[in-house]
Design a protein that fits this description.
Length: 865
């Protein structure tokens, strides 16, 4: 985009239109053919069927489909049906989630103004905003939405809310003057942008860009070209599926080879190997992960975080960098008076006392020279002005009462050229004009000062003291207003010349203060090994001041403006971001580049935001977090999670939940793999020693549906522990199947396999294959139910409370135990489940061998720790 803000309005008009005259109808048609219509265009979307079919590309899902087909080939239609139902349900869930996320561009379109007032053929007409074209002259009044980007031609105290683009809630005062130098979007005070709206005054501007060429259009383009990232869990499960498939295929090939070498029938050997593969695959894994993540979303919703994409729950637990907006997330999004400066003294807000006549005078004057209101909590007006009346209301000087007693008799509204506002009132001391405004402007108009209860001429020393106080406040990121007054002889219309010979009363310093919990949340963030970064559209001084207060900024050199990264290559930026904690005056492109730089350094990045300008970076980030209170629909649609309280502390709580969810999913996977490994060991051992196949197909189905699923889900719902926040984020490339993890799978699976094989041998002593199979089936089922307790912790369980602190585990064990006992003892079920009746000694042997696994595995853990 050309730097139109550096050119005069006449130069731009001649460049775009070739004349200073307004456009004619014929020129408009030619422009619309050249530039297109003023609307955002969409990329071609995938059909619902395409999205649905893409859900089956996951490697583990392909293996599960293969196992279902093989199960059907083997005649195990029930097993095949269960697998296919689970896979289809997950695919439907994934499709719904993706379709919900496809509304970002539609929300952007809703920002466009429906109509616009333009000058055509020398006459002001109202037209649909999509017909606005380059070179049009648009008229704006307070409350109007801006239909296209443009350069201001005339301005009468115009203020524009640009929060959708910059993220900052304070209205921007506009001017027609030509600006110099390269400026951030928020500093281009002679430009207006589509998607924003006028809050005060009126103006006329020349359209310079429309449709996809506007700032909102660029954001729409960034959204289309920004791909969402897979969470670490998604990546890990993909890797896990591939590794697991390789292991299973190798085992099956070995088993097949052994059977053939022993002289067995090749077809039978093949079917036996396939059956082993079906037994080895944890069919319940996908559904268990989905269920655990769903419970995680419910818990987080109760704590103020609504998760739009299930995987984001776990992804939060992997976050190593949080890029946070300032306004409303780290701060209260509410301008507040922090200091008075009266009688050459700094008075912190908590010490302002309405019983002090000087303090009360300042409060009254700031309420009277003020256009804002706060009635029943409904604030209307400029945030700096509402801060002044809110202070009075809190200190027992209610604005409504003060204004009733001292009504306004005249006024000079705020003007961006004068940078002052004045109102006339009849006070006890007579007619008084009260003036507030920019400190430097006011000091040029002041002749007197009120000090020690006396009004006298101001001295150069007085001015130096005031300027010093103003400098101190400004360096702390505070917004400073000067307050003065002038006694008048009579009631009359005020003139700009009356704003001379003022009496200086004092200064009022304000800011949007940090949330009370922000500093603690940042400290928790740092102790958890997460790097907090502030990215804001606000000025560097203000951003740095807030960042210092809450602990994000340690050294001033860690703060920079977005313009500083414009000239850095992507490689240079990767080194640069390591040393920067605060970015001010940033654009949407800056935000994406910062997020990408951290990602390319191997970090999982969370990004918070509420404006349209944040949407591309929210989509680019691994976890996009939108604000539920102040956030635009665009930012919400592009995010993975929405905060209902717009609070940074809620993100840290969500990170803790995410880490616990991942830990619980690992427990479930450990449980599934160690149990399946035990079954594989038993089958392999039977094959090696020439024994019959230990399990019938129905046994494997029962194990998959009951003794796998119930405890695995229960482990996924283990109570959360705060201790996870004392750990560092796990490396982004760390697989679920670490060496330590596989060692646990091997050891614990071997213990279960040994006792199961022992039960098979006990039952096979008389050559009774069915009895041996029944006892092996019973021990494997029950020991896997018991093994759920072993998987609760990597360390030995050292208390009864820790053992029984999960009600879901008690329910899973009880349900599984009752069902297994029914299968083993109820004659009517024996044929269905291919078992035979056990006598009391045999049944107690099954129970005893299964329960033996608990103390053995706990002892092995103690020896390892």
């Amino acid at each position: 985009m050309k730097a139109y803000y550096n050119q005069t309005s006449e130069e731009i008009r001649m460049e775009l239109n070739g004349t200073l005259e307004p456009l004619t109808d014929s020129q408009v048609k030619a422009r619309q053919q050249k530039y297109g219509m003023n609307e955002l265009t969409e990329a071609k979307k995938k059909t619902t069927l395409q999205i649905f079919l893409e859900q089956f590309r996951d490697f583990l899902v392909i293996i599960l489909i293969g196992s279902a087909v093989i199960s059907m080939f083997l005649g195990e239609t029930e097993s095949a049906a269960v697998i296919l139902v689970v896979i289809t349900m997950n695919a439907i869930l994934g499709t719904v989630q993706i379709i919900k996320a496809e509304y970002s561009l539609n929300s952007l379109k809703e920002l466009s103004a429906p109509t616009a007032k333009v000058l055509r053929n020398g006459i002001v007409v109202e037209i649909p905003s999509r017909e606005v074209t380059v070179g049009d002259e648009v008229y704006l009044d307070a409350g109007d939405a801006i239909p296209a980007d443009g350069r201001i031609l005339e301005s009468a105290s115009l203020k524009v809310d640009e929060s959708a683009l910059t993220g900052e809630s304070l209205g921007v005062e506009k001017t027609r003057e030509t600006l110099k130098g390269e400026l951030a979007l928020g500093d281009r005070r002679n430009m207006v942008y589509s998607g924003c709206f006028a809050t005060y005054g009126r103006a006329r501007y020349l359209v310079t860009d429309i449709g996809m060429k506007t700032e909102v259009g660029k954001i729409a383009d960034l959204l289309k070209n920004t791909s969402e990232k897979k969470t670490p869990l998604q990546v890990n499960l993909d890797q896990f599926g591939r590794k697991l498939s390789i292991i299973i295929l190798v085992l099956c090939a070995v088993l097949f080879g052994m059977q053939v070498l022993k002289g067995g029938n090749a077809a039978d050997a093949f079917l036996f190997a396939v059956a082993l593969a079906v037994a080895a695959i944890p069919e319940a894994l996908s559904s268990i992960v989905t269920i655990v993540l769903s419970f995680g979303t419910q818990k987080m919703a109760k704590e103020g975080a609504i998760v739009r994409k299930l995987q984001a729950v776990e992804g939060l637990g992997s976050v190593s960098v949080i890029c946070s907006d300032k306004t409303g997330t780290l701060t209260q999004n509410k301008m507040t008076v922090e200091h008075y400066y009266l009688d050459v003294q700094d008075i912190p807000a908590k010490e302002i006392n309405p019983m002090n006549p000087l303090h009360k005078q300042m409060m009254r004057y700031s309420i009277l020279c003020n256009d804002s209101t706060n009635i029943d909590g409904q604030e209307i007006g400029d945030p700096t002005e509402t801060a002044l009346i809110n202070l009075g209301n809190k200190r027992g000087v209610p604005a409504q009462r003060v204004r009733e007693v001292y009504s306004r008799l005249g006024e000079l509204p705020f003007d961006s050229d004068r940078k002052l506002m004045s109102t006339l009132h009849q006070l006890r001391d007579g007619y008084t004009m009260i003036t507030k405004g920019a400190v430097d402007v006011m000091l040029n108009r002041v002749k007197y000062i009120q000090k020690d209860g006396v009004v006298r001429e101001i001295t150069p020393e007085d001015v130096r003291e005031i300027e010093k106080a103003n400098e101190v406040y400004s360096s702390d990121g505070l917004r400073v207003l000067g307050m003065g007054y002038r006694r008048m002889d009579q009631e009359r219309a005020l003139e700009p010349e009356d704003e001379n010979y003022l009496v200086f009363l004092g200064l009022i310093a304000m800011m949007d203060p940090p949330r009370k919990e922000s500093a603690g949340a940042v400290a928790d963030c740092i102790s958890a090994g997460i790097r907090p970064i502030m990215i804001t559209g606000d000025h560097k001084v203000t951003a740095a001041a807030i960042a210092r207060r809450i602990g994000i900024l340690k050294d001033p050199s860690e703060a920079c403006e977005g313009a500083e990264i414009d000239h850095l290559s992507d490689e240079e930026l990767k080194d640069f971001v390591e040393h920067i904690s605060v970015y001010a005056r940033v654009t949407p492109e800056h935000k994406i580049r910062i997020v990408r730089a951290w990602q390319e350094k191997g970090n999982i990045v969370a990004m918070t935001g509420d404006g349209v300008n944040d949407a591309p970076a929210l989509k680019q980030a691994d976890i996009g977090v939108a604000m539920g209170v102040t956030g635009t629909e665009v930012s919400k649609d592009a995010s993975s999670m929405i905060l209902t309280d717009d609070n940074f502390a809620t993100i840290i709580q969500a990170v803790e939940n995410g880490r616990n969810v991942y830990a619980n999913i690992r427990r479930s996977i450990l449980f599934l793999l160690s149990g399946n490994f035990a079954a594989i060991l038993v089958v392999l051992a039977a094959s090696l020693f020439g024994l019959p196949v230990p399990f019938a197909a129905v046994h494997l189905l029962f194990i998959n549906l009951v003794t796998d699923s119930l405890p695995a889900i229960a482990l996924g719902l283990e109570p959360h522990k705060h201790t996870v926040m004392k750990e560092k984020p796990r490396p982004v490339n760390e697989s679920i199947l670490t060496g330590t993890f596989l060692q646990r799978v091997g050891i614990e699976g071997s213990v279960i396999g040994i006792v199961t094989m022992g039960a098979f041998l006990v039952g096979y002593q008389g050559g009774n294959t069915k009895l041996a199979s029944t006892m092996a089936f019973g021990v494997l089922c029950l020991s896997r139910l018991i093994h759920g307790y072993n998987c609760k912790s990597t360390k030995p369980i050292c208390s009864v409370k820790q053992f029984f602190n999960n009600k879901y585990m008690q329910g899973a064990f009880l349900a599984g135990f009752v069902l297994l006992t029914a299968v083993l003892t109820v004659p009517a079920l024996h044929r269905m489940f291919a078992v035979q009746t056990l006598n009391l000694i045999q049944l107690l042997t099954v129970y005893g061998l299964a329960f033996l696994t608990l103390p053995v595995i706990q002892l092995l853990k103690r020896l390892q720790s």
